[in-house]
């Protein structure tokens, strides 16, 4: 794949809180053919968990969420460098970096980035991305 094709791959940000990491790793595995066509950015621990199971993905882990990873992804969204955000949120556990999580979600809303916060919405987001990619191939 040359640099131009690489640059045209959709960019997805993937994040999961600790209680949801197994679920996200499973989700990625079930949709591996689609995720293989994407450039993926993650928060630190989420990325380590995914790459341990799916070594061939084009995946770049950033800092861990509580240490600024959510903010880094928010910055990428503000720069126009993210096409979609899948964030498996744990709504039952208090987070020390809750303000960072809220700021990230706010930026996804401000910049109108497709944002899935649970698995069923992530399925819809991914289906939509796949249909768009097929449409581009057909055009
Ligand atoms: O806390 C997180 C998102 O708010 C996730 O961060 P990690 O992927 O580093 O665990």
- Spatial order of the strands in the main sheet? 3-2-1-4-5
- The topology string of helices and strands comes to HEHHEHEHEHEH
Instruction: Identify low-pLDDT runs.
Output: none
Structural class: alpha/beta
**Total number of beta strands:** 5
Number of helices: 7
Our measurement of the CA-to-CA distance between the termini, rounded to an integer number of angstroms, reads 20 Å
* CATH homologous superfamily grouping: Methylglyoxal synthase-like domain
CATH class: Alpha Beta
Provide mean pLDDT, rounded: 94
What count of structural domains?
Answer: 1
**Radius of gyration from the CA trace?**
14 Å
Report the biggest beta sheet as strand number plus sense, adding barrel if it closes: 5 strands, parallel
| Proportion of beta-strand residues | 5-15%
What CATH calls the topology is Rossmann fold
Bound molecules: 1,3-dihydroxyacetonephosphate
Shape: globular
User: What level of helicity do the residues show?
Assistant: 40-55%
Characterization of the model:
This protein is an alpha/beta fold. The protein has a single domain, classed as Methylglyoxal synthase-like domain (Rossmann fold), CATH 3.40.50.1380. It contains 7 helices and 5 strands; from the N terminus they run H-E-H-H-E-H-E-H-E-H-E-H. It has helices at 3-8, 21-30, 32-35, 44-53, 69-78, 98-110, 119-138, and strands at 11-16, 39-42, 59-61, 84-88, 115-116. Helix 2 packs across helix 4 (44-53) and helix 5 runs parallel beside helix 6. It is globular and about 45 Å long. The model has no long low-confidence stretch (mean pLDDT 94). Bound molecules: 1,3-dihydroxyacetonephosphate (13P). 1,3-dihydroxyacetonephosphate is lined by residues 15, 17, 43-46, 64-66, 69-70, 97, 101.
